[in-house]
Amino acid sequence: MVKVSGWAYAANMLVKAAALAPFNQVTPITSVLFDFHSTLVDQGDSESWLNLALARAPHDLQDPDRQELLAFLDRIWENARVLDPQSSRDLNAGAHARVFHELLAQGPDVDPALANALYETLLDTWRAYEDAAPTLAALKEAGIKVGILSNVGVSIHHVLEREGLAQYIDGLVLSCEVGSVKPDTAIFQASLDSIDSTAAQTLMVGDSGHDDVGGTALGMRTLVLPRTRGTNHGLAVVVGLVLASR
């Protein structure tokens, strides 16, 4: 069997999803699943991340080397799809750390102690979009079940608590805890089970036209909000869609 990756892999998954999707009756949306990174939380700016790492591992880093590293860190995960097309990094912490350091090695030279500090502070700059908590609160007020479905190789439980989002969540499914990654339908089904819902009743909200569309093979409505810069992600549209479905 010939394996495909990158954009060819994404296109192949979309074609399969379209072919497998059932024809459901139109029903009101009674539950919403959210991706986490770049959907509910922003990863923050690379300068804040680097400063946190330098506080742990002091290093003489002057311009232009600093600026070169900042530019690289800002987009470090964009090469992950090429380096790790099957998303093994999201199945366990060991693989996640390995892929991170392999990605980091593709950029400017980084002192090993600083490289470790960058990984250790990776989640410290993740901040909820300003419209994340209000959106989740509005959904809960409307009686909507809310779940999070995330491809992530490390625990994000503490981030949910720190950012004030945990109180709104009825179910949380992480790839590293269930052994499956989006767009595999298995992890979407696990997430539906976690909130006791069905695909026909559920809206999936994410930022990736590759990972977050896997639920369409189950008949799940899907909204893709491309990645944005800034404190607001336009999440209010989710509430509008849910209410309109009624």
Automatic annotation (TrEMBL):
<protein>
    <submittedName>
        <fullName>Unannotated protein</fullName>
    </submittedName>
</protein>
<dbReference type="Pfam" id="PF00702">
    <property type="entry name" value="Hydrolase"/>
</dbReference>
<dbReference type="InterPro" id="IPR023214">
    <property type="entry name" value="HAD_sf"/>
</dbReference>
<dbReference type="InterPro" id="IPR006439">
    <property type="entry name" value="HAD-SF_hydro_IA"/>
</dbReference>
<dbReference type="InterPro" id="IPR036412">
    <property type="entry name" value="HAD-like_sf"/>
</dbReference>
